[in-house]
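User: Batch of two.

Assistant: Item 1 of 2:
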Amino acid sequence: MLLEYLRLLWKRVYKLIRAFLPRIKSPAKSDLEHSSGSRSFTALVIGINAYKSPLPGFPCLRGAVADANNISSFLSKSLGASSESITLLRDEEATRERILGELLALESDPRIGFGDPILVFYAGYGALVGEKDEQPALLPYDFAATNAQIQCAIGLSELRDLLSRISRAKGGNITVILDTCFPDAAMRHDVKGNDLDLLVRGMRLPYTWPTTTSEQQPSASFTLLQASSGNRFAYESGGCGHFTHALLNFLRNPSTPLDVLRYKDIIEGMQDLTQQFPHAEGTTDRRLFNGLAPDLQRKFYPVRKIDDGRLFLDAGANQRVGEGALVDVYAAENNSAKPYGTLIAGPPGESAVELHHVPSSPPFKVKQPSFGSLATLGHIPLVVSVMQPVKEGGLRESLSRVVEDLGFSRVRVVEESQVHELGWVESQGGQLRCEITDKVALDNGLLRLPSVVNPHDADIKRVIIGAEHFFKYLRQSRRQMGIGQRLTIECWELEEQVELTDEYLPLMLPMGDNLNRNGIVHVDVDEEMVYGFRIASEWHEPLYIWVFWFNMADLSIDVVYSPAREEPLQPFSELIIGYGHGGGTQPSHFVLPDDIDTDVTYMKVFATSHYVDLSFISQISPFDFSHLPPQVPDQRGKDWEALLIAIVQERSLPTHSREH
């Protein structure tokens, strides 16, 4: 009896105590994802070009500080971050002590709440340090190598430990972006041709650490976006890092809906880079900054049911809705609510899109009123711009009619200042010219395409359809399996031999050095010069290899090599194109039109684990108005990867530029 009485008494006392104690609840992931109101945003942005004591043979970088400035600008202009929330360290400001001090301060900063978004961005040199127990490291401004020891570097394991501490105090909404690399081989920085500013942001240092470092372990405390995976190279040229340039181009694309973007979408959606393999690590299926940056709040749009029962979302291309996007349906505009169903978007109009039930899911009744919010990316269309100055009417009206005809799911017209692939220019006499924004082409002086276009809707439409096809297959890449990282491409100048091949043709063999330097090949446009290629596979399974030329000057795509169904490239073997007894194809010979001195052709290698006919990718130039561009659906499926290099063709390079 006494024990029972004491139990009842304790229950009453316990209820009284709980009633007067503050209720404390740890925020769950769903709370962080759907919490209403904007969160504090904190960023540490680091860019280092010049070093206090640079090592011989590794020049100062030219684009790291610009990358840091551009990231800072994107955070403030596109995500709404305040200038007070961004700490920007450049060159001499970015010492080891200052970087670590800023990181440690995040752990105890009272302005940062649990789950608030935190970004750490670094652009500069990285290094793989050590002879036996190699450690990847970031190199602050004051790093040095003395007495065979590395001083003031920040090991990645040390950085991970700090980020784990911050995560325990402030939550796991931490993003780390590294535009650097940790190569396992020495890298030469002398590059043939005009690419003298093409640099690798990493080095191999056979020094020892002054202290031991903890073993590097993957961590769920943050999400990492890195310019290149493993010990591969990360490049910069033209005053910026290739990775940061591609990343910001994707994020700034007027058709990219930042509020639904996930980290894996970024890696999959970024344009393919020449011999560079960005990768993501950590929780990559979460939304960018968990959707908690100031301008990343979930957006709701009314879902209307019209008389015939069809459903429409009051948002379209202007709101970055792409065809095929999934749209979650809510009963109210409430960030904390859960959707009661999901629909899929059809081809969008300018400000509205028809919604359909997802084929693989059972249909459900859509209540009225209801509200839709984008859940996934849809198709990102070709983005074109009208370059200034331009006459009123004319070109703009033609483009409007073409867009209306093709649909907003295929093409969008934006202002000249916005990210775009193709620009339209009115030239004298009323004819039109096209400009491209490809980084390699611009770095090498190719801006305006040589062909002219008559100002007729049909001709403009033909070029846009061809450009859409061209850039779709040039830019797209897949990086899930890592096949691309197991392929290497070599380019060789060929020399004719006295001996004949089995086909009684002059035998061609390589001479000199491999011309592929860091994903860029420079060739002289000379009648006597021909070139061959070697593709080596270190993949453990047979591969079917397709090789295409993507010609920037006229937007044509040519098949260079197609595989036989019965003859895949065997594991750990090589494919020779254009030389030797079994070269299989003719040597490559490059010619420039009379009115240009530079052209860029991308060589793109597609690899599949089973035979797929990829000949549909090829197309004649859309500037050849005697033929229609292809209208063939993508037949690749999901089991493919690709590798890309750029071939820059120039007239009569001086002798000293051709030495290597």
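Item 2 of 2:
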Amino acid sequence: MWGVKFIGILALAFVVCATDLEEGLAIMACASRAMKVGVPSLGIPTYNPLKLKDIIFESDDYPLVFKFEFDNITWAGLPNWNLSAIQKSKDSDSDAVFDYELYWKHIEFGAKVYNESVVSEIFKIELEDTTWKGDFKVTKPNEHSNGTINKVGVRWETKNITASYTTSDDEEVKIFPEEFIKIIQDKIESDNLRNYIGDQIYESLEDVWWNTGKVWDLVQWCEDNPDNSAVY
């Protein structure tokens, strides 16, 4: 599945002691810029597009019984989100709690696909009006503790999916039946994927960004590179 690091960057809006929602939104805007241009000094590659790990996609539901292996997977449009959030806690509370929504108008996955009958084709899935919704809870840092990530919830929804592949003659073919598209949508919106994403966000924030203080290195990068980044 997907790498831990990029999912952690998605959630950076909430890793700033969470005493000010506007500051969190500004840091998220900065994270978007960092992902678009890449920041090698922080170990952030360009995410335009993001390169993902190989996966196997299969179904045992008759009559759509298949098994596809995907490699060279890319996700185009990842940093081009719109973020909204509601702070559910008071600034004076020791825990910060948010409801959030990340929205993408258009994102696109591409890959090489293999199965028993097809040696290699270029496969593409396009998603319109995609949202990640969820809640986030963190115990804020103080003089005795760096703080703790307590909860990350994610629900993935998308309204329209199209799938196609490009042949060796560079002809784009859209022949997948509605049943196949429905399987893709069910996989995307499944509890398994939702729980996986939430776990990866949690682990990345807690281990990669929060405990190491790396989020503040990103804040410093924003301050040193103000063009199109967050304003402080």
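The domain at 47-212 is CATH 3.15.10 (Bactericidal permeability-increasing protein; domain 1).
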